[in-house]
Amino acid sequence: MTKYLHTMIRVSDPDATIRFFELLGLREIRRMENEKGRFTLIFLAAPGDEDAAVELTHNWDQQGYSGGRNFGHLAYRVDDIYATCQRLMDAGVTINRPPRDGHMAFVRTPDNISIELLQDGHLPPAEPWASMPNIGEW
């Protein structure tokens, strides 16, 4: 039997990335510091869904990452896609693909990793989302 454990992404600013994921409702569930290897592993998950974690890997000597698009994306189901996107926008996050259809949106982490937000089902189209254009790649 195979069981999903987590998805790992490398991050240059753990605090900024944790703040981003906290806006989506994830919380830190464990952290491991490795002085010899000079890295930190931080695991985040939605409360009650700890089996679906994202692992943030911070290599202490790394100066930053580029090319986050080659990763693909992480996907999270949200209770209210409009409220989630508004909360992210209010915190300064760009909504790259707005939830025009009341079902799907894309945003990016501070390290340019795409995050797909999915509504369970579809909410009726609502402004300002219905008429918002895509911003950049998603």
UniProtKB/TrEMBL annotation:
Domain VOC: 3-120
Source organism, top-level taxon: Bacteria
Name listed for the protein in its UniProt record: VOC family protein
Native source organism of the sequence: Sphingomonas natans
